[in-house]
Amino acid sequence: MTKASRQFLFIAVALALGLMVLGGLAFRNLADNGAQGVAAIGGPFAMTAQDGRALTDADLKGHPTLIFFGYTHCPDFCPTTLTQISSVFKEMGPDKKIEALFVTIDPQRDTPDTMKTYLESFDPRIIGLSGNEAQTRAIAKAYKVYFKKEGADNGDYTMDHTGVVYLMDKNGRFVSAFNLDRPAKQAADELTRYL
Question: pTM for the full model?
Fold first, then answer.
């Protein structure tokens, strides 16, 4: 074997080893990202439930949870969504360990008392969460929720907001957006798989 052939072989072997190391690192990074979940949605929060108790992200653990952001003065979308969630929970039965969080994006008007009165029309496993402006912004940021106040000339206003219902597993990790535009029994069957 000539000197040039040995050098070529040495370079080829070094290149192959380098590619193997890079491939291994890339595979490890992909595997690590897959272990972290589908998306970085959710995170630490501290809010007040409609009964006055403090509720944090740690309270999501132990059962699947649906999370929906809205407000009590919403003319149609929010009550429709809460009615759909109530129908799904009814299909599951009263003994199932499941809950939904209705997080207000209108802390100016939605106090715990307002949330309590509003939610009396829906399944009791729907918990209303409210907080101050900073807490509201923090939880909205953690869940990638958009909201914006839309003013009116008379001082009244509505809120433009994201309309996604988030499904969190019993470890408090994001699973997916939950589809309520199907028969309640079908949605209930899906949720039951996460119990």
Answer: 0.79
